[in-house]
Specification:
- The chain is of the alpha/beta class.
- It folds into two domains: 10-20 and 28-270, Aconitase, domain 3; 280-425, Aconitase, domain 3 (2-Layer Sandwich), CATH 3.30.499.10.
- The protein is built from 15 helices and 18 strands.
- The strands form five sheets. It has a five-stranded parallel beta sheet, covered by helices on one side.
- Helix 6 (181-192) links the parallel strand 8 and strand 9.
- The radius of gyration is 21 Å and the shape is globular.
- The chain starts with 9 loop residues before the first helix and ends in a 9-residue tail after the last helix.
- The relative contact order is 0.13.
- The model has no long low-confidence stretch (mean pLDDT 97).
- The structure holds (2S)-2-hydroxy-2-(propan-2-yl)butanedioic acid (VPM) and iron/sulfur cluster.
- Iron/sulfur cluster (SF4) is lined by residues 74, 108-110, 129, 131, 306-307, 367, 370-371, 388-389.
Length: 426
Amino acid sequence: MSTNNEPMTISEKIFSKAAGKTVKAGEFVLANIDRAMTHDITGPLAVDGFYEIMRDKEEKKVWDPSKIVILFDHQVPADSLNAAQNHIMLRKFAKEQGIINYDVYEGVCHQVMPEKGHVKPGDLVVGSDSHTCAYGSLGAFSTGIGSTDMAAVFASGKLWFKVPDTIRFEVEGKLPKHVYSKDIILHLIGDVGAEGARYKAAEYAGSAISSLPMSERMTISNMAIEMGGKAGIIEADATTEAYLKERIPDYEFDPYWKSDEGAECELHKYDISNLEPQVACPHNVDNVKPVTEVEGTKVDQIFVGSCTNGRFEDIEVVAKMMGDEPVAKGVRLLIIPASRTEYMKVLRAGYIEQFMEAGAMVESPCCGPCMGGSFGLLGDGEVGLATSNRNFKGREGSPQSFVYLSSPATAAASALTGEITDPRKI
Ligand SMILES: CC(C)[C@@](O)(CC(=O)O)C(=O)O
Ligand code: SF4
């Protein structure tokens, strides 16, 4: 509750802490940042901007190196001379400043940040990547910012915000077999549209959300930006506490970090008890259809991975659905665990051997084909099915290619048949 006893949203509470005074949605604040993240694509510009800001200063030091994390994940191992140069520059900056730096082998930023314990409920986190909203799965207000804003954060540890309104999705019901959290978030995005939550803090709540394991929650928060959301918050509970106790020594759960009863929000209610597997169709993430409307579409390449669905649990769904069946003739199946930690779990479970026997390709942790800037690209006229979060024209390669988005289960079923397939039929 605020000082005048008005109910507050979790976003208003987090920004009140960060601003050092009670603030409400709609107010502009200069907020103290708890954690800042940058990576190999957007980091170099942020570093250049930082030195520009500091050009007249004797001491060119970041505000607090212990609160900044630099990762290499979009173009790893360096896939061009430019990427190699960027990595050299960022390694040098991190070393000089004493900043935490996960190098080319650790994995995708939005998997590594939570798994290494760099985020907790009530934090205000910024990352120079639009999917930084993913850490809302841990009850933080976490959002993507530009490289120049990141330069300002490096220099001052502060950033201005307009405290966002809240759009709350209350999702009830039990997920049917072969239907996952990716199907929930695709359904919500299809319902409200890619602009539906524009500049709002999305909250995801209800029995269908609270019953999800952390890996499935991360998928939902990761895609808040795909409905225009400034954040994608799932309030911390026992699941969050268990996840964080393994990663943050002396972590203590604080029930304060949730929206008060009656806090102002735009409310949307759903029951997903009869939800079908969903597919986002070219060329927009909100062009969502039930899989039954697109099944039979021939696919050339299937990508299982990314910060959206590249965790061990996602890859295990694929392994269990495929069993010892081969990848369909003429189809490329590319599997990329989202981090070294997740890769090791997949390896120890024996799934790498299973996938190699099936004729799939397994790569070291990275973004891979997700943003079409590295490897595994689609050529003219090719159709890709991916477990990632974006399918804009040309996203995974040729502007003449087509990208569909789905859950790992739909991806696995389609890898077996060579066409988009309803996982409930396997
Ligand atoms: C940096 C970019 C490639 C990104 O990772 C995130 C972004 O748009 O900021 C993406 O998935 O599009
Ligand atoms: S995996 Fe894809 S969505 Fe996630 S950070 Fe990398 S490029 Fe962006």
